[in-house]
Amino acid sequence: MADDRHKKLSVLYASGKELQISGEFSSYLGKLLNTDLSKQIWDGMVLVPEFEVDDELKVLLETVVQRERVSFDSQVRLQHSIGKSSPEIARAMVYQLPTPVDAVVFPKDKELRRLITVLKKENIKITVYGGGSSVTGGIRSKKYERVVCIDTSNLNELEIGKGFCTAGAGLTGSEAEKLLNAKGLTMGFFPESLEHSTIGGWISTKASGQESNAYGDIEDIVISVDLYRSDSTVIEDNYTRISSGVSGKDIATGGEGRNGIVVRAKMKTFPKPERRYFQSFLLPSFKSGIDFMKTLERFPDVMRLMDETETDLALNEAGDSFSKRVLQRMMKSRGISQGSMVIIMSREKISVPKISGSIKMGKSPAVRWNETRYQRPYLGNILWKRSVVVDTLETSASWNDLPSLYQNVKNEFTQVTKEIGINGLIMSHISHEYQSGACIYFTFMFKSSNPVEDLDTIRDHMVQTFLSSGGSITHHHGIGNEFRKYLSDGLKSIQDKASDPIFLQI
Ligand SMILES: Cc1cc2nc3c(=O)[nH]c(=O)nc-3n(C[C@H](O)[C@H](O)[C@H](O)COP(=O)(O)OP(=O)(O)OC[C@H]3O[C@@H](n4cnc5c(N)ncnc54)[C@H](O)[C@@H]3O)c2cc1C
User: What is the pLDDT of residues 202-257, one digit of tens each?
Assistant: First the structure.
């Protein structure tokens, strides 16, 4: 048996990758949080305990899946039992580790159906793992007699057709884009986790990419899926559209590993844009930005409106520059003490209607956002390593409800952190727009001696405020383990009917 005792596992996002921040930005952020950010006190790693190996299970699995695609390694098992949600990271920081799965298998498509049949016969539960970027506790295992995790990384083929591709569920976004880009195509789906999340994961969490205004959310991009369940197999890869009741696509979308395994999916493809056009403006306030956005009849491919705090942070992160000093002078002359930045990216040159009281900021902020869009989460790693808890929660609401929802959530955050007795920082941006409303995304951070309990309390207050202010539980992160308790009884009952009991019900 391998000696796992000294192995370590990084529980942060994309271990090893770092975003550099300047000393000035670190002390600016430290001041806002009233803490010293100069010292790293955690490396983001946990020591992996040695987990027992179930020899009987080993024999069973190796009769179905080739031996090299079966793992009982403690580090691999722990990695497949923990996602990237902040509660999971906070628990890991204080060494509260999840129950590990008993084994991880990396089957090929041809091994999968027999594997599911054998596991069902032995009453062994299954969890499904794509890229492991879940931020809702979606891949967390639970105590159960025996649990095997199916990692989809060997389901990775891609075939290109006219206007679509058939992609293996385990392909990451970057892998799929690379293959498509080589043929002048794109899938048009760009979550911030593109480098690590998979097609199966996107479908299963009902995800949304940053260019959803142009290409749609995942349910608009998936044409059909092949779904393996323990009681049936749904093969839809020949369909362009099916006009019949509930389809595999319907059951798979948002299924979060409870409804079977997405093996492959037929996805739309689009010509890769030849150019991108960028614009940025500073608006007098976040509220004026929301009022402006709701008058638009069409939205640019990307339109991100940051509130005053997030704008301030973005401007400070960019460092001192001539253009920043010019901007500050213009703000002063217009009586804007803290503006709200909107960045726009589009495939065509578009002219945005004049925004009253706004200052044109040129293209640089939008270009910078585009260039660093997949690296921005690494900023979170820097904070976690200084034991600052950082988290994001997102919701969607109608244009009319958005301003009050925003204010209510901020007030609630201020109130609850005051009651707990900690210093916190909250900021927000609007990221995906629809005719009826938009997604509003909150980032918050704090330092506390009780990170796990305080985070749970703050999150609960925020989600309850979403719901009482007209918002949804989440807009694109899924529900996972952590949000299921907020689901209405009606939806819970429908979703339970679609589930397959051999898959661990989170
Ligand atoms: C830094 C960061 C940025 C993010 N940005 C975005 C964003 O912009 N937009 C967005 O929507 N989300 C975002 N997310 C959340 C996350 O990336 C998505 O939820 C993503 O869809 C998960 O994909 P995954 O392959 O990592 O799935 P996993 O994390 O491996 O799994 C997620 C859930 O899907 C299930 N699952 C995975 N594959 C399959 C399959 N083949 N069949 C059945 N069930 C399966 C799992 O069991 C689990 O319940 C972000 C996360 C991080 C950490």
Answer: 999 999 999 999 999 999 999 999 999 999 888 887 889 989 899 999 999 999 99
103 φ, ψ (degrees, to nearest 5): -160, 160
- Highest CATH level, class, for 35-153: alpha beta
CA–CA gap between residue 348 and residue 154 (Å, rounded):
38
Predicted local confidence at residue 148, as pLDDT: 97
Other CB atoms within 10 Å distance of the CB of residue 67: 10
How far apart are the C-alpha atoms of 206 and 476, rounded to whole Å?
6
AA identity, residue 236? E
Task: Tell me how far CA of residue 438 lies from CA of 56, 63, 233, 361, 401, in angstroms.
Answer: 51, 50, 36, 24, 10
Structural domain 277-372, CATH architecture: 2-Layer Sandwich (3.30)
C-beta 106 within 6 A of ligand 1: no
Domain positions in the chain: 35-153, 165-273, 277-372, 378-475
- For residue 261 and ligand 1, the question of a CB distance below 6 A is answered with yes
* CB of 226 shorter than 6 A to ligand 1: no
For the domain bounded by 165-273, which CATH number is listed? Answer: 3.30.465.10
Q: CB of 136 within 8 A of CB of 394?
A: no
Res 322 pLDDT > 70: no
Give yes or no for a contact between 397 and 28, defined as CB atoms under 8 angstroms apart.
no
- Average pLDDT of the chain? 93
Class of domain 378-475: alpha beta
Whether 224 lines ligand 1, by a CB cut-off of 6 Å, is no
